[in-house]
């Protein structure tokens, strides 16, 4: 690529006067390394030989300070001993941008007669080119049009439909969609244990990074005697392009990977909340079949609630019930909701026509200590599993104009949709008007490769560093915290969540 660009530049003097910079490629998915080309032309647009040009990039020097200069001035300063233009007035060097990031390259010349030649982005004549990377895909994630509240998220009423549409979406390492076209995806379909033949043709992802497939189910007899059938649809793709298929998730093959399997249970059992089993008699060569059905419950509470100055906290809990097909169910049933412990910690509530029961309780709380919540359907047997909504943490806003050392800065939870995080019972808010720094040690996960100097972070980069997937929590030094938005808060990450 360098040779190609050299040929293009060497045969074209129609370059703007002064210093210009361009790249052989400015956008792609993932990490990429284009050729950076810097040219210098005089006022007659003729190439100038052996001219010293300073070239630096934002990845290496970080964000400019409030005066428009580099945090470390020598990193950007011009001398007469920088890279020199060749016989055609050009300089070529390799560029780089990391996956999902941007990196801006700067080229400029100072004045040999000046006392100093420190760079100022606002006043120093310069040229720039920005490399932009879109986070690349690493896995497939499969969704269906099956009611997400159905049992297992995959139970289909034969009497209601005879097809299911599945979408395989390219996703990045965080499970976020990647709109990348042209990735080939193959399918293997099993219907009732038999391989569908011929197999569906392989297809390529569209501009949204998706492949859509519709699979057919058994035809309904319009009664309640249709036999259960379990189908599986597996999507396969070498998403990362390394020539091999990554293994499916061993704990759950429906989780994102390069081999994702979706399971569909076709049934026409009567709608139910509690667990029931019936048996279909043998027919011809088909043996008798037991059909078990059960609905589910989903509890819900906010992740945190504010603790009053009198150490009281109000907890609002709800639980929703669904039949095996995901439809609201349970009207008139009784459910016990328990919030906290001690006397008056439980109440029996009646399920509404919408399949929901609610209860709230105000109780004494302890800052940062979770209040437990539990639900129990009042039936003799066959109660469904109730998941979610099991705890809530009492919090207060962190003190205005406060600080917190890194030694006491282990993050308990991140609420990125609200731009908030919690350390113990202290709730911190942040926004684009605040300042974020990477203070992680050189070589540590999320830290700089070679320089220990703090680097500025965007809000998104800050969130990416402090999130935890369950292994270790992020640690933040709160250099300064403003809670009433009249000043900027300053946060410094010292350990990345992993």
Describe this protein's structure.
With 498 residues, the protein is mostly beta strands. The chain has four domains: 133 residues, Macroglobulin (MG2) domain (Immunoglobulin-like, Sandwich); 129 residues, Sandwich (Immunoglobulin-like), CATH 2.60.40.10; 100 residues, Immunoglobulin-like; 98 residues, no CATH class. It is 4% helix and 40% strand. It has three helices and 36 strands. The strands form eight sheets. Strands 21, 23, 24, 26, 28, 30, 31 and 32 form an eight-stranded mixed sheet that branches. Strands 10, 12, 13, 14, 16 and 17 form a six-stranded mixed sheet that branches. The radius of gyration is 31 Å and the shape is flat.
Short description:
Helices cover 4% and strands 40% of the residues.
Indicate the topology.
Layout: H1 2-10, E1 18-23, E2 27-29, E3 35-41, E4 52-57, H2 58-61, E5 83-84, E6 90-94, E7 102-108, E8 126-134, E9 139-144, E10 155-157, E11 163-171, E12 184-191, E13 194-195, E14 203-204, E15 210-216, E16 229-236, E17 259-267, E18 276-280, E19 289-293, E20 296-300, E21 304-306, E22 312-322, E23 334-339, E24 346-350, E25 356-364, E26 371-377, E27 386-387, E28 391-397, E29 402-404, E30 413-415, E31 420-423, E32 426-429, E33 435-438, E34 455-457, H3 459-466, E35 475-481, E36 490-495
Parallel strand pairs: 2-8, 10-17, 20-27, 21-28, 28-32, 33-36
Antiparallel strand pairs: 1-3, 3-6, 4-5, 4-7, 7-8, 9-11, 11-15, 12-13, 12-14, 12-16, 16-17, 18-19, 20-22, 22-25, 23-24, 23-26, 26-28, 29-35, 30-31, 31-32, 33-34, 35-36
